[in-house]
Amino acid sequence: MPDPIAHLSVLAGSHLLDSSGGRLGRVEDVVARLDVAEQPPLVVGLKARIGGRELFVPISNVAELGPEQVRTSTTKLNLGQFERRPGEMLLRKDLLDRSVINVETARLISAREVELTEHGGLWRVSGIYAGLRPRLRRLAPRTVRAQDGEPRQFVPWSAIEAFVAHVPTSRLKLGSRRLARLHPAQIADLVEAASHEEGEEILAAVGVDKELEADVFEELDDQHQVEFLKERTDAEVAAVLGRMQSDDAADLLLEIEQDRRLPILGLMPTPKQVKLRSLLGHNPSTAGGLMTPDFAALDIDTPAGSALETLRRGGHAARTIASVCVVDTDGQYAGLVPLAKLIMAPAEVRLGELLDAPIPTVATEADLPEVAQTMADYNLIDLPVLDGDGRPVGLIGVDDVVELLLPEEWRRRAGAARS
After folding, report:
1. How far apart are alpha carbons 48 and 25 in whole angstroms?
2. How many Å apart are CA 138 and CA 132, to the nearest integer?
3. Digit-coded pLDDT (tens) for 200-234
4. pTM to 2 decimal places
5. What is the spatial distance between Cα 58 and Cα 302, in angstroms, rounded to a whole number?
6. Quick one: fold of 297-404?
7. Yes or no: is domain 176-286 CATH 1.25.60.10?
């Protein structure tokens, strides 16, 4: 026999009866507790209006959650004024018609209906329904709603993260561990599609992992980067920029109010300051402005095994090491070795022996069309940038070029992550 099911839209506003069938009042809301990790919220009671007073009816005193009426198991109720306790959510007030995150699809959806299921004597929030039909269903008379069957587009609670910052007594936060399963670009899409308050809540959740927070800021568009840094202190902004890739950090620093730039820059570690000052000295649309100085440059005589060990210890983000720059004894550019080739090479083979046909380079003054044309002609993932003395000063990744070449209307659109 299937577990009993109830829908919030049918319960809220229904008659509240005592055990003998006498009318006590009206159900206004359903109270659920969210402070149990990885569990569907437990229904702890009802908020009811009886004789002009708002009262709490414990779920233990409820004998029937019917489609047209709710019946208690007693004729006597505690007449104390309703007060919600820490960790409790009013499903109608705090969840219905609000946005939630579907962590399986990385989209914001609206909770148009809430489903409750009883199992083992306990009522829990089993999930929500999105889409237009559940909302239209709520406009129908209560008797029609009760006979309309289950609405469509059901999303189980296991796939949902609910926003709780607006809940007055909430001690909870969005689940950073579940959000961390998403790609930073997906999280950035969610932030951009959300309201400002919702976006702040998402960033606060991912901020538990400072590296992930920096990755998400790299994926945000300029407008949202500035929006969510505006109210942070200079030290907090410097901490975020300090963890970002240098080219992205330099671009963002230029978007911040001019009178804050130098103070923020001065709060970053010296090596990061040096990289950012170098990038800021170039026109943003040239190779010098497009490149990242966060790259690995190793001597031509370095054995492959030693090179891999150096990369492991170097602190480079894994996604920034698609290639390794090889330099001669004078520090001049000798070639580029793809990481995949380096991994497959015998440990004793020296980097100079792994160099194939020369990989083209560009000067720091090269413009975007030249950079794009060179990378397209040679099918490059990374393009080395050399200074006037032939020394590598950075690499340009194909992702940065593609992003700049995309038409503005093709880039991430506001609301793209909202269903």
Report:
1. 7
2. 10
3. 999 999 999 999 999 999 999 999 999 999 999 99
4. 0.84
5. 72
6. CBS-domain (3.10.580)
7. yes
